[in-house]
Structure formats: structure tokens, C-alpha cells
């Protein structure tokens, strides 16, 4: 069957925004790609699909799916048909993310210092006090350039109206950027001419930009400060990414046992003795960073690290304590933060959010559960979600009791029919739901956002869960100017 015939058979579900096809046919920004594909036959495209899989396997691009009882690493699923977003649409996304990160950085500085936003009644004090990731141990610590969020992976979804909405902020240790970069490298191998023909914006300089920012954060003015990437180790689900980024930036990859604290300074063990470390790009959660300050039984962190951090002898990226701004109950207040700190209206809207600690909101959600998704306020990766349109009655009754016992730990949002894009599945083009995780870097010279980001795909038909940890896949994201 020809590619033209397969495209004719492509049918998106009614009431869902399909990013490739509208009532009038293929959207303009997808035309060049599918014109090129029409010159290929299906065996050629399937051969390219096989080549992509081999490239991922040879590179060892893996992700651990913890929900799998075996807990084994899998090759990261990749769909070869790119997702395409116009430059005009992207410019709005970029401005919206920059605005949001400015407000979130100001919020984190405020909440760990004067807490003016609480005193002015914008955010309830009880909400912050009850947040398990509000880290009192870092209250009053001054961070370089007042930047708390150096790296973010803000999750966006596209609704039925075609507009982008912010779903999550991911301000602690966001993952996935290596997959974005590898997706582009694989696409270069299988569709080299299509990238140049469409003038796709580049993403390859992310490691360079990140390295520049890390160097600028050194607490002492040195020509060559020492920067390290701190990993939990080989058993972490994103260990491939840790090794990839360390290699791309040319910095040491270390574990907690490779670092020691001496006179409130951090040193790395080397074959030539101890070398002082000035900046740590950590991929370890707060509670495991320092067993003297947090979890006493942690073997992943460095005893005394927080003391060195408090004295300004080492910069930690992202800052310790960012989890308070990642709380899904706090997420609902980000539009208010933008108005409060910046005196601006949000460029990108939140998904409507119901705080289940509010009795009226809880009653409304319970009465309309079939159109709601319920989430734990401090879970990520797709864990702890209840999809109201598929939940079994017994499961919902058990969840309802838990919510009533600890309502602060839950929020609810209307189920959004995520936009769809074409994917090559079983030899046919089929629509699958997607989200988008653009990566933003905040440094002394401003906020820079990689054009595109990681598109995550719900590979199962009809599924809205795109998380890699739940078995989702990804595809290359092209930003093109029409």
C-alpha cells in the first residue's frame, strides 16, 4: 500500500485536536514532510524504523520501567515520524515558560526568606507548612544570583482547542533531555535531507549552554572551576542520561562516595589526591543528599554537604528545596504568583485544578469523577494517578476513603483530551496522544529554552498516559518557521 493511501486512511478521533490533520486535510507545516515520505515506499520506511531501533540499541539508550515486575532496562521506544510545531506557536510557548520561571524563581527566593507572598495572603501559610518538600533546613541560604531553578522540564499539553496548557513544572531533577538530543541524532541519520529542507531549529547546543551556566555559578572566581555531575549510581532509571550529559559536558560523573567534606568545602577523590569541587549538578533527590541533614540512612549523598552549601562554598544545581514549587497543590497558585511578582497576566494557562482539601471542591469532584483525573500532590512519573473514566468501582471506593482521610495530598483536574500526532505503528499511520517537555536553562544571563523539547507519546491506543516510567515512548520535535 502506498504512503498516500495510508495517509488517506489516517483518521483522528472526533473532538480531539490532531496536529497533522484538520478537516481541510494535512496542515501546512506538515506538508513538506509528507511530500518527502510519499516518495518512499512502505518497505523503505519500515527499514528506517528498524535502523532507528538498532541505533538506539547500539547507543544503549534505555529507561527502567519500575512498574514492570522484572524491573529491567528497556530500549527507549522511539517513533520515527517527527512532531512538528510552527515557529509562531513556539514563540508563545517560549515567552510563557520564561515568564513562569521568573515568577517561580522569585517565589522560591521569597518562601525561603521573607515569605512576603504568605504575609500578603496570596498563598495560605498552611499550604506551605503542610508541604512535605518544603525544606526548612535551607531557610535563609543565599544561592548564587538568586537562581533556584537552573534546569526545568515544564510539561505542556495541547487541549481540544489547540492551545498549550502547563501541566507540571518539574523543578527538582528533571530528566529526559538526553532522549531529546538522541532523538534528533537518530532523525539526522534516517531523514538527513528532511531536516535541512524544513529548516528545523537546532537543539544540539544544550550541553554547551548547560556547561556555561554551571561554570558561571562557581562561588569563587576561578578560570576553571571544577564541576561534577552527582548520580545515585547505575541502578537509577535515568543513569544513561547521567553518563550522557557528563560525557557531553566533559565533566566528572561522581557518586556520593567519591566526594568528601573538609572544612566545610567539597572535595573529589582523584588519583592525584583531593580536588575541590565548586559546582554540583546533582541528580539525587533532596532527602538523599546529606545523611547528616536529611535521611540518616542515605548512602547516596555526602555527609556535611548542606553545611558547605549553607556557607556558600559550593553551588548545587538545582537548588535544594525546589520541591515546594513542584507540589501539585502549590501548582494551582502559579498564575497568582505571576500576577503578584511580575504584575502580568499568565501567557500560558494552567489546567483547571481542584484542591481536594476544599470540601466544596471535593464534593464536586466526587460527583463528577468520571470526567476527572485525581493525582497525589507529591507523586510524579505517572504514579498515583486515578483516571476517573476507567477506574473500577472497588478501586475508586478505596481511593475515596484515602482522599477523605488525607485530602491535602490530592488534587483533581478535568481529563483533557490530549492532542494527537501521527505515529508509525504496525505498518500504518495511527494517531497517538502526546505531551511536550521543553527544557529551559536559567543562568546569570537570562533564560534560554531549547527549541522543541521531548515529545512523549502514549503508545497504547486511546491511552492518555505518556510517561516513560509507564511504558510511553517519544519522538523528535521539530520547530519550523512557515
TrEMBL record:
<dbReference type="Pfam" id="PF14403">
    <property type="entry name" value="CP_ATPgrasp_2"/>
</dbReference>
<feature type="domain" description="Circularly permuted ATP-grasp type 2">
    <location>
        <begin position="82"/>
        <end position="458"/>
    </location>
</feature>
<dbReference type="InterPro" id="IPR025841">
    <property type="entry name" value="CP_ATPgrasp_2"/>
</dbReference>
<dbReference type="InterPro" id="IPR016450">
    <property type="entry name" value="UCP005522"/>
</dbReference>
<protein>
    <submittedName>
        <fullName>Circularly permuted type 2 ATP-grasp protein</fullName>
    </submittedName>
</protein>
<dbReference type="InterPro" id="IPR051680">
    <property type="entry name" value="ATP-dep_Glu-Cys_Ligase-2"/>
</dbReference>
